[in-house]
Amino acid sequence: MALPHDVSLPDALHGPRVRLRPLGQDDAAALWEAINESRDHLAPWLPWVRHVQALADAQAHIARARTRWRRGTDLAMGIFARDEGHLLGGCTLYPHTWALRVFEIGYWLRRTARGHGYAAETVQVLTRFAFEELKANRVEIRVDPRNAKSRAVAERIGFVYEGTLRRCAPGADGKPADRMVYALIADDDQRPDWANDGENKIGTATKPSARSGDLPSPL
Ligand SMILES: CC(C)(COP(=O)(O)OP(=O)(O)OC[C@H]1O[C@@H](n2cnc3c(N)ncnc32)[C@H](O)[C@@H]1OP(=O)(O)O)[C@@H](O)C(=O)NCCC(=O)NCCS
């Protein structure tokens, strides 16, 4: 299902230290550099990284992401340092179904951005946006059980572990792999309160573009 007519996507989302926004072609060199310096820790968990072998692949990756953003089939964004503006990594808010408003969050950080809490902050920003602006019923994180760093992100910020789906998704080696499912639901008693006051509140959105699904910068 495509982007519902009543949904306006923001130009950007903010946390205290991160800014999330769709990548444009001006970001292709930074994306290429970030992936290249990070292959060792990305490739075991993100099979698409193997297909980015040149700047042109990063450009094509961004073009595909922008098409999916416009259609509302996947809301992928770059993670940027809010102050310095450099690229820290990437994230997605993937709508399993707009009809039921069920979303899945994905994330990665470049090598030099790990170990500062940027991934946890990014997930908090996306989760808040999903519940408050997109009226999500459920937000999931699915993790390969071998991915201890990613499991730690979900657990640290209070997502509830619901169970493990066995051999339900491809591992980076192409073989079927398990997924641990973490989730929050809209009326979850355990849903954490991540609110902060003022302009640094987690999940602050920049005003949406004129039409739903418009992108803030030219293709
Ligand atoms: C998963 C991934 C994003 C996690 O990165 P990360 O840096 O460990 O996660 P965070 O950004 O939340 O940082 C948490 C770490 O920063 C530390 N930290 C330092 N300053 C911090 C701060 N101000 N706030 C919060 N944490 C802070 C935490 O203590 C924690 O350290 P630890 O791992 O030694 O316990 C990263 O390993 C990655 O890119 N992996 C490959 C892609 C991937 O697996 N994606 C997920 C697929 S499901």
Automatic annotation (TrEMBL):
Biased composition (Basic and acidic residues): 190-200
Region annotated Disordered, chain positions: 190-219
GO MF term set: protein N-terminal-serine acetyltransferase activity; protein-N-terminal-alanine acetyltransferase activity
Record-linked SUPFAM superfamilies: Acyl-CoA N-acyltransferases (Nat) (SSF55729)
Occurrences of domain N-acetyltransferase (ranges): 18-185
Domain of life: Bacteria
Name of this protein: Ribosomal-protein-serine acetyltransferase
Lineage, top ranks: Bacteria, Bacillati, Bacillota, Bacilli, Bacillales
